[in-house]
Amino acid sequence: MSVDVQHGQQGINGIWSSRWIFILAATGSAVGLGNLWKFPYVAGEHGGGAFVLVYVVCIALIGIPILLAEVMLGRRGRMSPINSMLYLAKESNVSRWWSCIGYTGVLAGLLTLSFYSVVAGWSLHYVVLSLTNKLYQISATDSKLVFNALLKDPWQLIFWHTVFMLLTISVVGAGVIKGLGRAISIMMPLLFILLFVLLGYSTFVGDFEAGWRFLFSFDTSKLTWASILDALGHAFFTLSVGMGVMIAYGAYMPEKKASLGRTVLAVTVLDTLIALMVGLAIFSIVFANPSIKLSSGPGLLFVSLPVAFGNMVMGQLFAVIFFLLVAIAALSSAISLIEPAVAWLVEYKGYKRYRLVFVLGFIIWCIGLGSVFSFNYWSELKLFGKTFFESLSFLTANILLPVGGLLTALFVGWRMDRDSVIDEVGDIQRGPYRWWFRVLRFVSPVLLMIVFLTSLW
Ligand code: PHE
């Protein structure tokens, strides 16, 4: 690659209009499908409160340190993850190979979006099903049939995948300020409102006490090594680190003086709070109907919940609200998955953003077809016992993400010019940043290695 990397190319892609927009955009990226179905279910299964505690420790030991490192890399590099890393490697007098953090991130982001969009499409389908009263008083058997029918119908899946990709590219194509920034400032408040309405509803109509007990009762007997590993991996995925997304978003941060530590903490607290609130709402609603069998993974959202809503007062209205919430959360994550690649191509080739986004979107859409078919035509086609969809999700979440995070921790902790680090975050000899830097150097890499090796195992 022959770009002459210069610091100060800042602004080619744009700058957030305020630090708040950065916080909202980063939170929008962090809050996604991971929070909505993975966290509640995994927490409940692995001993509720005990798991939540382990998860919070993991967030503190790898999530926050790497998130802070990524945002710092972006704010200093001021460009797309790839070019920021090229610039920072040069500034620190180390090999250009460190830019592979940017390349693996871009690749992981595009691959993740290809299947994320397919799943996000399901939620759009369920918005329409609830709007048209198709889930009214639905039985458990029928709910399963409805979901299976969707998965077995490639045309429906392709339709919703297309709609979701079109939404994503129309936001990203409009640019950082008019596209991402504007969409975020509409979507995030809407997401908070929907979430509060849903939580209010679940307190009145659902079995809030049972939901609370399931999520927070402290049962250490269910806490195993596997659950600790799950907590580690999830802490990482939920904060959107390891993909360069936060480097890209950090590059659009406006003022230099804002405290990175406080900004990153705000994002983390919001992400965790939202995960817990969603969990409480989901379980209170599901447990309101004792006959419902709790299903895991997508089944929790798309099979169990529709049954619960279908048999509750005003259930259809709140089902619409819930699936809209899922779609919005997914969209605010999806735009962040494609942005690093787009930003890089805009800097590298100087092409018009909307044209690039369209081409890139089309490529991702095509890869997504593989995931669509893995639920029907190709359901028997397996690689190491995994379908195309499962293999992609494994490759990104269990391999590319931890590797990206590990390299980030090693670069900032060991190779990056120390004065630049100090210039960005402040004193790393004293106070909270001292802890941050130590954890980043010694603890996060070890934990990441463990996640990576055990998932390979
Ligand atoms: N954090 C998102 C979620 O919880 C997923 C994501 C990962 C988004 C990495 C962007 C980058 O669903």
Automatic annotation (TrEMBL):
Q: How does it sit in the membrane?
A: Multi-pass membrane protein
UniProtKB keywords: Membrane, Symport, Transmembrane, Transmembrane helix, Transport
Which molecular function GO terms apply here? symporter activity
Primary site of residence? membrane
Q: Where in the cell is it found?
A: Membrane
The similarity annotation says: Belongs to the sodium:neurotransmitter symporter (SNF) (TC 2.A.22) family.
Q: What is this protein called?
A: Transporter
**Species name:** Candidatus Endobugula sertula (Bugula neritina bacterial symbiont)
